[in-house]
Amino acid sequence: MLIAPSVLSADFSNFAHALAEIEASGAEWVHLDVMDGKFVPNLTFGPKLIADLRGKRSSSIIFDVHLMICEPEKLFEAFAHAGADNITFHVETVIHSHRAISVIHSLGKNAGISIVPSTPVSFIEELLPYADQVLVMTVNPGFGGQELIPACLEKARTLARLREERGLRFLISADGGVNEETAALFREAGVDVLVTGSTFFKARDKTALVKRLKGLA
Ligand code: DX5
Ligand code: ZN
Fold first, then answer.
1. CA 195–ligand 1 middle distance (angstroms)
2. What is the pLDDT of residues 30-84, one digit of tens each?
3. What percent of the chain shows pLDDT beyond 90?
4. Nearest atom in ligand 1 to 6's CA
5. Is 33 marked active-site?
6. Among the atoms of ligand 1, which is closest to the Cα of residue 145?
7. What is the crossing angle of helices 15-24 and 47-56, to 10°?
8. What tens digit of pLDDT does each residue of 123-174 get?
């Protein structure tokens, strides 16, 4: 189980500190939520913040960029150059998702596809052989601190089964409503990467929290 704290719940006046806290916690990834005020009813940041954070750190932490924006294809190159390792877009925003995955790969990055709670797994079945990551939204995207929609866990289970049946290799990530009570449900559903925003930034001992979310303590 990999842990990907989201800076969405960090103090926006001090992202460098948030990144340092994430690195110190033992989490493997940092999750960067990019919002445009159109695909989701909130606004965050763009490639420059990611480039500046990348410039600050020499460590090998993975920059996991979650694009909650319309027409994400227009910005793949900018996010790749900014230092993203993983670029995930919403299939609800792109008609030619297969091409979009190829473009991300041609930029030398891992390609992720994401689905909101109302989008079924069947919508992305044809894409599964090409994706490096499937990010299952387990809340409606836009804000941190929401409650898990339990029905979405079934989608992680379905993805785990399809991956097994077809011998595929994508990672299954879950985003939204991860906390100490729900973490075990995500693990049981076959999730490989847990995104955590509010729970992570509220925790006083972040290292201990990361261990508990992984199910190790
Ligand atoms: C929500 C974002 C999430 C958010 C999760 O649209 O995609 O990454 O940070 O927040 P929590 O962990 O508080 O549910
Ligand atoms: Zn996210």
1. 7
2. 999 999 999 999 999 999 999 999 997 667 899 999 999 999 999 999 999 999 9
3. 97
4. 9
5. yes
6. 13
7. 50
8. 999 999 999 999 999 999 999 999 999 999 999 999 999 999 999 999 999 9
Residues enclosing ligand 1, CB less than 6 A? 6, 8-9, 31, 33, 66, 139, 141-142, 144-146, 175-178, 195-199
For 31, the 3-state DSSP assignment is: strand
Q: What is the pTM of this model?
A: 0.98
Nearby residues for ligand 2 (ion, Cβ within 5 Å): 33, 66, 175
Helices (H) and strands (E) in the chain, counts: 8, 8
Q: Which domains does the chain have, with CATH numbers?
A: 2-214 (3.20.20.70)
**Residue 175 annotated among the catalytic residues of the structure:** yes
Give the list of residues 6+ apart from residue 103 with CB closer than 8 angstroms, or none.
73, 76
Among 33, 36, 64, 132, the one annotated catalytic: 33
Only one residue has tokens 């763009």, namely: 46
Beta strand spans in 6-122 (E) = 29-35, 62-68, 86-90, 110-115
